[in-house]
Design a protein that fits this description.
By secondary structure, the protein is α+β, with helices and mostly antiparallel strands. 39% of the residues lie in helices and 19% in strands.
């Protein structure tokens, strides 16, 4: 990836190895203040004049393309919407669509009312759509945020190949009290008086922890997926006017699972392994 330019509200980049030629991606956050939003549109227009590659623009534009994308309290002037539309047309971009809820931002307002708006999207030029026709934007489920995360998938492939896994101690295990019982139980079962015995003892402990990990953390992704589905179904219930007690409960569970997952990926990131070690040494 090559960063071509960036300012407070955008990052412009060239990316290799996605298709036969380089593609251009611009990550955007639309100006929050309406009078300044034209600055975002001008930035996109300037970029469009200097590029001839497959190009996508993704992010929170803080604006809608159609009044139907704003539901609930508040209003948007037609002039705001027209300004966004004009920028999209000038740049030769089109909305690639989405899967999931019809909004990406939800805010509860006093009195039990709400505002739901589709602020986040992915726009692409014809060259991008020809080069990457399977591009799909997914509105994911959020916990503890009024914005839904968005995920752009390009092909139906997985970047990682399955293979044998070496044992690594995971920091997130320490959030589960039964870890210490498992370690103490195995460690007290065998004598480690010499190097050979100690090696075997460590191997047995690693095996026990691998089983314990599958039982307690192996289903984290599955739990996350199931809870997200439940939360999404609750959020699209007809007549819903705000978070219910059940939604709050599921959100709290998701926050804990997200925290565990974040710990896992932080530790697995190369820099984290270098700084904090994997506790194998």
């Amino acid at each position: 990836m090559q960063i071509l330019g960036y300012l407070r509200y955008h990052i412009d980049a060239l990316v290799d190895n996605m298709v036969d030629i380089q593609v251009r991606i611009c990550f955007v956050y639309g100006e929050a203040q309406v009078p300044n939003r034209q600055n975002t549109w001008d930035t996109l227009k300037n970029i469009s004049e200097t590029q001839n590659r497959p190009w996508a623009v993704i992010g929170d534009f803080n604006e809608v393309l159609n009044i139907s994308e704003h539901d609930g309290v508040g209003s948007r002037s037609q002039a705001q919407i027209d300004g966004f539309r004009e920028a999209v047309d000038t740049c030769g971009l089109s909305d690639i669509g989405y899967t999931g809820t019809d909004w990406t931002f939800e805010k509860n307002v006093a009195g039990g009312t709400y505002t739901r708006v589709r602020l986040d999207r992915c726009l692409a030029n014809p060259e991008w759509l020809l080069a990457l026709p399977d591009s799909t934007l997914h509105h994911k489920t959020a916990a503890g945020s009024d914005h839904c995360p968005i995920l752009l998938t390009l092909r139906n492939i997985h970047a990682c190949r399955a293979g044998p896994r070496s044992f690594k101690y995971e920091t997130m295990w320490e959030r589960e009290e039964s870890l210490f019982t498992t370690v103490a139980g195995r460690w007290s079962m065998q004598d480690g008086g010499d190097v050979h015995s100690l090696h075997g003892k460590l191997g047995d402990l690693a095996g026990d922890l691998a089983v314990w990990d599958r039982q307690n953390f192996g289903s984290v992704r599955q739990q996350l997926s199931q809870l997200k589905v439940q939360l999404q179904l609750l959020r699209v219930t007809p007549g819903r006017s705000g978070p219910t007690r059940e939604e709050t409960k599921i959100t709290d569970m998701l926050v804990e699972l997200f925290h565990r997952e974040e710990m896992l990926w932080r530790q697995r990131a190369r820099v984290e392994w270098l700084v904090h070690g994997d506790k194998n040494t």
